[in-house]
Amino acid sequence: MTFGDKRPPVIDLADRRAVAAWRPAAPEVVAEAVRLKEAALLDFGLTESAVASWIYAKCHHQIPTTAVATAAVVASGDGSCLLLFNPDFFVALGLDGVKFVLFHEARHLVQRHLFVEPELRNDAVFELAAEVTINHVALVRLKRAGLPERHGSPVGVDPAAVHERYTRDLAEHGLDPLPYAAFVETDLTAYRELKRMKRPPVADHICIHQQTDLQMDQEAVDAVVSSALLNTLLAGGRGHTGARNEINDLMNRSEGGERASRIWGSLGAGSLRGRTSATRRVDWWQRWFVDVVGSRLSEGERLVYPKKRGAVLAALGQDPIMARRGPVREKVVVFAYDTSGSMPAHVVAWLTDLVGRIDRVRAHWLSFDAVVMPFQPGERVFGGGGTSFQAVADYVEGRSEVHGARFEEQVDAVVILTDGHAPHITPAEPDKWIWLITQGGDDWPDRHHPQMSCHRVTTGSS
Ligand SMILES: [Zn+2]
């Protein structure tokens, strides 16, 4: 998916090294383009688009390269996505233009995820409808009066101009055109209306995605976008109004799509609007947990994001650390269950079942009060007096013994199920700790420094 350019790629865009080595731009241009890109993403995270911010957070590699004429998101070989951007193009656009283009590209990924139906995807009129609605949303959301300009000429499809052409075409054939606002209301209304034209405008206008589409792997797009939507939903649920509005708007715009409603239903997005999906029970904490554990257990060395990106993620209340690929080894997860709280059996049963379905994971189950006691799922656990998170940390970090033995393994994740009522701790590796807090409990790890992954579980009967 490249913005506003028809030139076929000169090299394999999924090949990171080839892309980075291709005819490099002048170092000062590259530096300025990178600065613009970072500034744009910071604004997205803080105010303008939580979805775009999350999507680019999941593009592990962001490469300035002249191998693309504009900007493109492509799938890399390892199933993740790459952001490629032409440094001269970004510098010519300036910050506002860069934001427009990055927002536009992110929306294409969302579109591709929500409307994967082949009869739509291969339809040039739907492509144009997407250009129209994406640019309309970008103009509104980024508060712009017009398209970005490069050397004085506008870049991309102008939704108002397309609407004008549509109005003229329909009027010439005695049909009633929709006013602009209704025309751009959803992706499918724009599509349906363009189809009413005698000769819908296509190829000569649109930002060409077909060539690079060949390199887009739908699975990679789905993984990146569904994670971005989930995190935006969660941020919305936690009171981030920008995230909440954006998701609501996206749901409205994708109305009428079969796959889109399925996706919104399975994400439990209806609960943002006070309705629950008819098809399944909404348990956000479970979706959150799968995402968080997934990122802890994915392969490879850990990399910390640069400071600005960290600030973006921190603004959304998220952990700024992400895993990278590397050699495969068995992962170790410790589940520690606070016997002083009231944890219904179905929560433990759900966790046990989940762990059973993850490949190459070894789980250790501990119960704890003031001391730590290993147990097997299904066994009854009994609690004594007091609660100590420090007892769990001491054991997991190899400082204390249980039944005369130390815990020798290197953990990848520590999951604590608790009501949170006990002295606070800072573990040696806080980014590995995931706290599940029962209803009515204290979610202090969320406000702790350093902040730890933390979510309330629904402990009502189900
Ligand atoms: Zn486009």
TrEMBL record:
Full protein name: Putative metallopeptidase domain-containing protein
Putative metallopeptidase domain sequence ranges: 38-149
Biological source species: Actinospica durhamensis
A family per Pfam: DUF2201_N
InterPro entries, per the entry: Put_metallopeptidase_dom (IPR025154)
